[in-house]
Amino acid sequence: MVVGDFPIETDTLVIGSGPGGYVAAIRAAQTGQKVTIVEKEYIGGVCLNVGCIPSKAMISVGHRFEEAQHSDDMGIVAKEVSLNFEKAQAFKDGVVKKLTGGVESLLKGNKVEIVRGEAYFVDENTVRIMDADSAQTYKFKNAIIATGSRPVEIPTFKYSERVIDSTGALALKEVPKKLIVIGGGYIGTELGTAYANMGSEVTILEGAPDILAGFEKQMTSIVKKGLKKKGVEVITKASAKGVEESDSGVSVSYEAGGEEKTIDADYVLVTVGRRPNTDEMGLEELDIKMGERGLIEVDKQCRTSIPNIYAIGDIVAGLQLAHKASYEGKIAAEAIAGEKSEVDYLAIPAVCFTDPELASVGLTEEQAKEEGFEVTAAKFPFGANGRALALNSSEGFVKLVSRKEDGLLLGGQIVGAGASDMIAEIGLAIEAGMTVEDIAMTIHAHPTLAEITMEAAEVALGTPIHIIK
After folding, report:
1. Beta-carbon neighbour count of residue 296 at 10 Å?
2. Is residue 345 part of a domain?
3. Is 188 annotated as a binding residue?
């Protein structure tokens, strides 16, 4: 880093290099802007380093291990299947290294200046970027804040060697014999499922009446059935009270059904939400307009109350999703370039990599009715699809929600194998203003899981082929 008090000038300064920040920086550079990106820890942010990507690598390991042990009905009998967890961790780390290295190359290839350190706003056109050894002033015309979020810490469950967050769960040296997960949202349920597949005895404590609150009960019931089959105990309406930690494990006390109970485990994973990283960066110096929970208020172009400063991702309202941050990053960069781009969350998908997977896009049946639509909700089961049966993955369904008067597609939900990939077709159809007839008339390859979406569209039309009307 350059040392000294002479300001370095740049057109657009991006703070944070996660999936929102690095995408914003590249798109801004593509529009001809001189771009500087600031990162205090690691290129790729939480998502690529300790979130989305490594967790999916470990989920994949868990699936392979579980399948190797339980494929007898397909004629595959493996008598002594073992898991080399050190090698599994090395696989995960290799995936991360490849992707983060690729992102850094993309930034450099687009002539984005990468600066290591923490940014602190001095005024609406100036930041000080500091590392352990020096500080440098940068002057910018526009800035995009993309600092992401961090796990919420419960006061009675301070993070330690045995009380861990999602980052700690991905860096364990061994598979826990017993694991307690506090919080049955998508992070807790995903990681709990992964470790259950690797042999852990998992207990999930959730304060709400049900886990995976963002998804329909019809969908989550199938996931809960799968968790039960894996031996995962799900305790809802449970309030975690405290933890006692020893060198060898933890003892967690909780209240459920009017009784206080205690369970022991090797580790307790706390996943009760994430808080935006909007503190300790000098935003108070700007008098920038803030909303609830430390979120920054923005308009449809991701512009804050200060016209030349933008904010994207987990630090603004909405779902905390990597692809939402990337989308907003493009919008902000294009807005700075004078384009008329603005956010439209009509078809932003939400995915949970449970077993089976969950995916939803657009409106649910309930949401559509609340918005005044008269709807048709059509479902087709995985169990009636040849490819699903051949994969031995027949649990689940595709559900399409359409406007009754003309079949306009309003939303779709999938629970089942490959749901995370299948949801893209429904998202595209919603974005394109397509009807269920458009989907039904599109020739889908056979035998594929994608046919289930086509079949659900035919159910909506009242002309199903492969189930009785």
Report:
1. 23
2. no
3. yes
